Amino acid sequence: MIDDRKGFKVTIVKLGGSLVTHKDRARSFDQPALRSIGRQLKKSGLPSPSHKLILVHGGGSFGHYYAKRFGLTTKKGKVTARGIAKTTGAMLELHSRIRNVLDEFGINLESILPSELIERREIALSETGLRRVRNAFSNDLIPISFGYVDVFRKGASIVSGDTICEAIAKSIEVDRQIFAMDVDGIYPTRKIQGPIIRTLRNSTEFLSEERKYDVTGGIASKVSLGFRLREKGTEVFFVNGKEDERLLKLILGHYDVPATTIDRGKRI
Ligand code: IPE
User: Please, are residues 74 and 123 in contact by the beta-carbon 8 Å criterion?
Assistant: First the structure.
């Protein structure tokens, strides 16, 4: 744990693959979405001495496309070397495109490879990862990591960006977790239309939509993660990352924006 961190807030923003890529079109980067994120992050004025930011991004039509094509899943399994190389390569390419756009806005990022950030045996940060995050904070850098391919002695598996968020929250007290997406929040039905659910409670029912390339579980597992984080005291939001500076407002603690949040209760 970063026990000496009291005195500053920590917000994690997960840039969903659906936001940073056109998720249903292979290898298609969403430049305008990234520019909107860049503008909002710049306007936030973070990091500051009292508020630190961590970014994590997903795979969208880069990582998920190859994962699906070569049979990689979140379960450890034998996959071809080609499959591992292509999926990892696509993630690194997406990562560098994200870096380049955010850099245009003067956002100073510290890329931390997921393999050094997290401890493989448990969902938590490694010693190196914790040190890298702490050092990034003290140099006014925004740590950024991403979903990746974990390669074992025999076989490989996908570790989602959401799992990385959970690992961070296990080792650092995270005040706010924001899932930035390409839709306005969580919807009560499979159709992504009409009003969103503003507050997810124990009993709130919702049906998640399915996307063409997605090997890490989609919205349902994201919502379960949200409840686990909420249990630990983290405020959780699902918000449209492109619209009306909603992300910016949430980062700054102005909660009167269209978004889905998670109630205090435990999900049954
Ligand atoms: C997936 O990460 C990473 C790979 C496919 C290698 P995520 O599961 O976090 O990606 P999105 O946000 O759902 O696209």
Answer: no
Q: Which atom of ligand 1 is nearest to the CA of 56?
A: 9
Task: Flag the least confident range among 20-24, 187-191, 249-253.
Answer: 187-191
**AA identity, residue 203:** S
Of the candidates 108, 76, 73, 98, the one whose C-alpha atom is nearest the C-alpha of residue 217 is 73
The letter for the amino acid at 103 is D
Query: CB 111: neighbour CB atoms within 10 A?
Result: 19
CB of 17 within 6 A of ligand 1: the answer is: yes
pLDDT of residue 193: 80
| Res 221: pLDDT | 85
- Domains, the chain, in order of start with CATH, read 9-262 (3.40.1160.10)
Sign of the dihedral defined by the CA atoms of residues 243, 265, 11, 7, in that order: positive
Whether the full predicted model's pTM is greater than 0.85, yes or no, is yes
E strands, 127-172, where? 142-146, 148-151, 156-159
